[in-house]
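Worked example

This section walks through a single chain of length 157. The input is the sequence exactly as stored; nothing has been trimmed or padded.
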Amino acid sequence: MEELILFLLNLLIFILFKSIFNRIIKKYIFPFRLSDVLTFIISTGIFLFYILIKNNFYLMYFILLINLNFFYIFYHLQNMINTSPRTKIIIDFSKLKKISFENYLKKYNEKIIVDNRISRLLTNKQIKIVNKKRILYENKKNFIFFISLIFKVIKKI
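Given that input, the structure is written out below as tokens.
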């Protein structure tokens, strides 16, 4: 019973910190949002401190495993919401209820999608602008550089 109560309390605290941090922190530590990392560290820290006081290592592993799963699930859900045009359209339609196709195209179209993606790539320092051209950072520490190499190899196959 204690595990169930800890699980539910942990979930509530995780969601609370996630919603607070998502509103105030907009930075990325690519591929993660800083808000996700802080939520994981703080919510895990709160419960690990409580569990260390109780001296119950079983619960410590339980909370650590649960918070890793929360981190993974929320990361992918938010990533899907932020990057999927289809998900964006579904969310917009649920908010707007009734909107004409023409009016919606003024709000969300291919140019807006591309501009948002490029803005994200610039913010994450995955691309840079040189002489009005957008180019990929050729830094081996850059995750997108690694991904682009994989895509090049797969395309040649």
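What to look for: The chain has seven helices and four strands.
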